[in-house]
Each structure stands twice: as C-alpha cells, then as structure tokens.
Amino acid sequence: MSSREEVEAVAVGLFLEHGYAGTSLAAITGGAGVSRTTFFRYFPSKSGIIWSAFEEHTARLRGLLAAAGTDADEPVMTVVRSCVVEALRASVDDRGIWMKRFVILDESPELRAEESAQWISWAEAVAAYVAARLGSDRDALRPASIGGAVQAAFLATLRGWKDSSAPAPELIRALDSELAALCEVLQRWIDQE
C-alpha cells in the first residue's frame, strides 16, 4: 500500500505532466496503486492534494506567530519575518514537492477560485498577529495592509523561484533577505503611530 506522501508524489507528477484538469482521480489512484477509498482517507478531494499542504503551512505560520506572543521584545515585523521564513522552512521537503505543488497551484486556472481564499487566509494570519501587537482590529488599515504586503512579497518570491535550480536552503535565505527590506519599511510605518 502507498503512503499519503507517495500518493501525493504520484499526483503531483501527473498534474505536472498532464495538467491539473487533465489528470483524473482514476489516473492518480491507478498510478499510486491505491483504491478510491484509500485515496479519500488521505485527501478530501483531488484539489485537497494541493490545498491540504497549503492549509498546513498557513496553520504552521499561525502557530509560530502565536508562540511568539504579543508581548515579544522584538519589533513586530522582525517577528513576522522570522515566522514567515520558519513556516516555509518547515514546509519544504527534500523531494521538492513543495515547489512543484506551488507551480501547479499557480498555473492551474481550475484552482484559481480556491487560491484567492487560501492567500487571504495566509495574509489574515499576519494581519491578526500585527493587530494583536498593535492593540487594534485585524481589519484596521495597518494590520490589513501589512498582511497583504507580506503575502504579496512572499507570493512574488515564490513565483520567482519556479524556474530556479537553487537548493531550498539558498532560496529560504533569499526570502529572508527580500522580506528584511520590506519589513524594515513596514516597521517604520508601525513606529510612526
């Protein structure tokens, strides 16, 4: 019997080869050597192959931000940057499935409708932390704008990596560096209040 990770790897390979829409559930189960019942024990749907890992990543980000606490001595944006980088570091796997999954999600029109809700949830994780630190509402100007800005920078960085052959640790260092400049500007905005 195949493991959840093996089914995921087969599905991702098929999605890359035939496209998300061009890959049937039968092709996935056949390629992985599992029954439909086993597939549905691992994933709630075909799109769950892509979204379950994204949801785990967002939950990890929320957990890291919560663990940092709202009374942290470090500046707000230093904590945000550190947690965003650590959440991605924990999401990266040695097989490179994380980036392949991102390519599928970013290039599949069939996943676009769900993509927006997922990225909004990610940005809200950052906004909620910033709001808690500032003692304001998550939807207030600064927290909401910061959540959106950090999410946009994160997404743009991932898109820039799609064709990169650099090893994951090098890419994660680059993300940290890219976020550092943005977070410095955002911290100055926070400090103006």
Explain the overall architecture.
- It is a single chain.
- By secondary structure, the chain is mainly alpha-helical.
- It folds into 2 domains: 1-46, Orthogonal Bundle (Arc Repressor Mutant, subunit A); 49-191, Tetracycline Repressor, domain 2, CATH 1.10.357.10.
- The protein is 76% helix and 0% strand.
- It has 9 helices and no strands.
- Helix 1 (4-18) packs across helix 6 (97-107).
- It is elongated.
- The model has no long low-confidence stretch (mean pLDDT 91).
Key traits:
193 residues, mainly alpha, Arc Repressor Mutant, subunit A, Tetracycline Repressor, domain 2, 76% helix
Gist?
By secondary structure, the chain is mainly α.
Question: Which word captures the global form?
Answer: elongated
> CATH superfamily of the largest domain, please?
Tetracycline Repressor, domain 2
**Extended strand count:** 0
Regarding CATH, which class of the largest domain?
Mainly Alpha
Low-confidence stretches: none
Mean pLDDT across residues: 91
| Overall number of structural domains | 2
Rg for CA atoms: 18 Å
Q: What topology does this entry show?
A:
Blueprint lengths: L3 H15 L6 H8 L3 H7 L5 H21 L7 H16 L5 H11 L4 H23 L6 H21 L6 H24 L2
